[in-house]
Queue: 3 jobs
Job 1
Amino acid sequence: MLSPDDARLLERLHGDLPLTERPFADVALEFGWTEDYVITRLSALLESGMLTRFGPLFQIERAGGLFVLAAMAVPEERYEAVTAQVNALPEVAHNYRREHALNMWFVLGTETPAQCAAAIARIEAETGLPVLAFPKEREFFVELKLPLTSGAPHGAR
Amino acid sequence: MALDDFDRALMAATQGGLPLVPRPYDAVGERLGVSGQQVRERLAQMLESGLIRRIGAVPNHYRLGFTANGMSVWDVEDAQVDTLGERIGQLPGVSHCYRRPRHLPKAAPGRSQDALSPSGGDAVQSIATGGNFWPYNLFAMLHGRSRAEVEQQAVQVRELLGAACRGHDILYSTAILKKTGLRLTHPSKED
């Protein structure tokens, strides 16, 4: 689990890394830590898999691109092979196994709608399975919340 | 707003993550042959325009103790879904909230017919959904330390939706198969 320092750091760095020359030093200053300590903690969190990434999150829609959620019903005996086929595409940004007849849910992120359609067509051709697409019609504002320090569950206030 | 070559290069250089060094923007600039100042200015513009949502940590919910991750999906009256979606985004436990198309048999009365299936056709839908159609148009990601906690969050969503809700489901994730984030594939060749 997270140490209290790590939890504080993650809450602080969920967004808003300063765009300054030495951003980690600036964050360290807020906490009374050293720059080196911030960098070491972040590196350890990435190393241990607590974080999957640290950096900018792009909304490619703002540049004409798109993210599309897509789902497939994959036969159990082929699940591993189909996972490899789907994940091999760089357009596939995320992929999750879920408990449902539609048991594979992935997100395609591309710079153009044509690239997205091509990626879906390729997955259908390679796997022989139909892909159901759920393009984002509207995104609702979600308040940033990652209550790690309180020890409270996500739902608690 | 189309991407220019510098945007693409900057995205390619940072989409895997920022270097964890004292001067990360200088380090990115060095790779691109520009100054750290130029990198920071362009990143600031991207934040301003919304092309960058945020710069920070992308957590692995599972490893942080949020082992119950449910995609809750709701069949909500079209006339009310946008108003209600905004309110659901404010609920604790909800990390993402979207309106997405339903996938319905062609003759279903009283529902929108704007569903998009690249393969098209009822046969495809019925195969893909295991014979069931997909009536849900509102998606809210819920995260908890147990499924009971997620169920509790779903109760709150249900209460908020009230009579506008005709049905729902929660699809729990049981494995992260991939989580790399966006990767531009053929920079600058698509124009």
Job 2
Amino acid sequence: MQTRTTAPPEAPATGIDVDAVRLHGVSKSYAPARRGAGAVVALERVSLDVREGEILAIVGPNGCGKTTLLELVCGLIEPDEGMVRAQPAALMAQRDLLLPWASAADNAALALRVGGCDRARARERAADLLRDFGLAGFERARPHELSGGMRQRVAFARTLLAGRPLLCLDEPFAALDAITRQQMQDWLAGTLRADPRTVVLVTHDVEEAIVLADRVAVLSPRPGRVVATLDVDIPRPRRRTDPELVALRARALEELGA
Amino acid sequence: MTAALVLLVILGGWEAYVDLGGIDALVLPAPSAIATSLVDDRALLWSNFTVTAREIVLGIAAALVVGLVCAVAVHLSTSARRALYPLLVTTQAIPTPMIAPLLVVWFDYDLRPKIVLVALVCFFPIVVSTIDALDRSDADLRKLMRSFGASRWQTFRLVEAPAALPGLVTGAKLSLAFGGIAAVLAEWSGSENGLGHLVLQALPEFETARACAAVVVLAAFSVAMFGALSLAERRLLPWTRSAR
């Protein structure tokens, strides 16, 4: 558990912590791109908790500070004010960020290599996981030989193998075509049912949020603030045509102001 | 194929220009005269070629080693960047003919001053293109490595260095173009053999065709080396091709 505190507005209650992530009154702004322009406020007094084992989706329009939120949770940046507490997290970005010169197995093994695992063992563990992910026979393929959906599966394997209790997924399927995106959402739902993790999923796709998450937090346009949180009590596996899901989707869109 | 056609047209035009324009063969020999010299003087050309080729290859090899070390130092250390980069540019501002005689004084008449001069000239394109390639590696990838808890060195070894290899190859390709000229200049400043030496001897003997033949051999060598490097790049760095 790592704690980073910068002048909390009010001290959080200390006690037994069952939250994997705890954000309290977090604000973050960026220096203006041009001189004379005002600072860009990405997040304004955001408070959010993620329970252990929960899948939380954060939806919001582009530019509402979703990525900033994940970078805070992953400890890549510091908040201007407020408190960020999070278990060690592994980040998966919208771009798959696979190394073009490395095989699928070596790419999936990247975090293991960073952690000091030797090459052969890391590759072996990665190849095992890739086979579980339906990529048997592609362990030695280079990224350019894989389809978009396969590349995202390799990237997800790399994220899992980082061995962190918390997964931060930043629009993981946004770059895929609509059909592949649906397949990948169903695949991720199945994978997470088989191997439950604490997940923070950032997306601008409301349907994706509701298909995958236990709870959906809706962010406002810049500066990002949490305007609503919706519990998704729909049994899995979920169908996109389920009336309950459709109704919830409509509510979330309403909260977004769409 | 297209290159051969273009070359043929140029040679034809050249031949016609010399034949019909009444150009003195001492000023500009016809391609046919150069071809004759290539055949007649082949033993002489070959023995001098092996000398110059060795100067170029060893010079570029030295430039690759030193250039790589400098590029990595400049990339990894801000103080090395501040201290070394201006110096690197300065070395290129000194005209080669000024350094060449000094090198002969220091290193004698043998291969060494030529290798040093070729290395000095070739070093710069290698360093600059490698530094640029290292600096331009993906910022999101570096962030990802940081989220995995990677050290600076791990990020360099696993991400930045492989990503910069194509830059190193580009630098080596550029240095091939400069290496030949540098070797000839070095030979002009004092030598007993080599293609540059051959040119310097042929001109006062009114053997212009032989001088041109020496240049043709040098150019052919550069083209062949360039081709070999491109082939090696496709074989060893196949991802650079597919990424385009």
Job 3
Amino acid sequence: MFRKAKLLILGFLLFSVTCVAQEKLYFGQTEIGFLVGNSEEQWDGNRQRRFDVSFMTFHGAHITKNNVVGFSLGIDQYDEISVIPIALGWRGFLGKDGKPKIFGGLDVGGGSTILEKKVSDEWSKSWYEGGSLISPSVGISFPFKKDKTTLSFSFAYKRQQVSHYWGSLIQPGSQVVANDKLPPGYNSLTENNFLFRSFVFRAGLIF
Amino acid sequence: MKPLYSASSLLFLLSVLMFSSCVDEVNSSYTYHTMMPIYLEMSDVRARIITTEPAQPIDNPGKIYIYEDYLFINEPTKGIHILNNSNPANPINLSFIPIAGNVDMAVNGKILYADNYVDLLAFDLSNINNIKLVKRVEDVFTHMYTHATGEIITFRDTVITTESPNWGFEDGGGWLMNSSMSFSANYSAASQSYGTGGSMARFTLANLHLYAVDESTMRVFDVENPADPTFVKPIDLGWGIETIFPFQDKLFIGSNRGMHIYDASTPNSPTRMAVYEHVQACDPVVVNEDYAFVTLRNGNACWNGVNELQVIDIKDLYKPTLKKSYSMLNPHGLGLAGDFLYIAEGSHGLKSFNVSDVMNIDQNQLEFLTNQKSVDLIPGPKSLIVIGPDGVCQFDYSNPAKLKKLSCIQVTNPTKFY
């Protein structure tokens, strides 16, 4: 899936290169900040505050003077789970050159849990699988004097799905009727689908 | 600067809004194998008319019985497939007899015996194209009754997905919902019982009597008049009974604790001669004049077992002694044809040995077909019939050192072995 996404991005970038002849084509944005959310309901009905680190870098190309498309890559921490968000994105700007600008953005893609270790022993296996990601954002950019680089502050909403699987393995010597509900070799499978909804505040640079 | 102020206040408002709705969700699902209890009224079961039906694809082969040029293949809990096997290289699926709850069968003359939950049925095979039910002996396999009201309980191996990982206690399943209880082929008639008229059979005929073993009892039927089987009596065997193998006047009964030897010279009242105890494991038995060959295997309900072939000296039937044991991979059924022993090694394959020297069986391994997964086998008059997860295969075994595959009947829903 990611390979497809990458190809799509590449294609899109190439397409943009051919049809845009602006003075500056490349657009980069790197930001770091935090994710805030409220955990799922605990046994007592309360929710716990989730407060974690978020890092994001966006690479794109201007398709018009105020519109940029590209892809974003980063790292988000959700409690113990590290997710690498990979998304296609858009940034749109409002304002005059040399002045603070308001910008909006949208990133749509998926999160990878490749940093999470797969645990496997004689009896069981457990692993994470990433899921879809959507993140609309708004922000303000402040240009530095005499420089093309601008300071940016983004506020975003981020919806990230992550699944955790724990399966007990069928022990040698057992006979099992084939079925399509369980992956082959598994006796049982517990699936936890997490939907993280977070508010994100990030600060960084646009260059 | 004014528009910027209004814009930032809008941003602030928006972020507060978003923040307040940022709550996580977790959905869990738990998928597991289990034995689902099914309750049936025997009166309903008996009301069903059993007639020969057109051939059906073999879904999941259970026990196999050779009758003349025919193969009877049991589909556990569903019925019996009848195949014309006059040419082992090309068996032809002829018909199907739907018998609910059927696990085992035996043929006596022209009469087929098959269990139908708690009843024993007798079918007339004189016309193979029109097999007729000639007798029903009611209420003999009574261990299936939940209580005395005619309701029986069976179990179906099922995969269930629940929202809560609480093992389904809410629907009263209790211990039945424990996945480790699942696929314990030896626990209930409805589970996926493998075995054949070979070493894993639970029905056997000897001296005009039919012996049927369940997990704790041997039931004796007088079948002197084949079409009119009569129930003689149950004999308590103790727990964990799995297989029965007749040899001459003796019955060798494999249990998960050992091998029972019964003297059946008085056919309607076999008496125990000896019990050979070993570690707990699953164990089919085959026997010749001097030795019993027992496979012990680790799996299913017989945990903590070992995987080995034991040779037991039975020259003195009252004092069986272990002669030697050989390490195996995961031995299931086995078959003896003269001096040659064939062992189904589960997912590991199929082995053949020359056992004329019982002290050196390991050095006389003739062949090991690692690509032939097998659970049980029968050395038949025309072919060696091997039952495995992928189907029922037949081999030319005129040269035991070089088995030649003749045919394989593919199954539609193969059982997986691990």
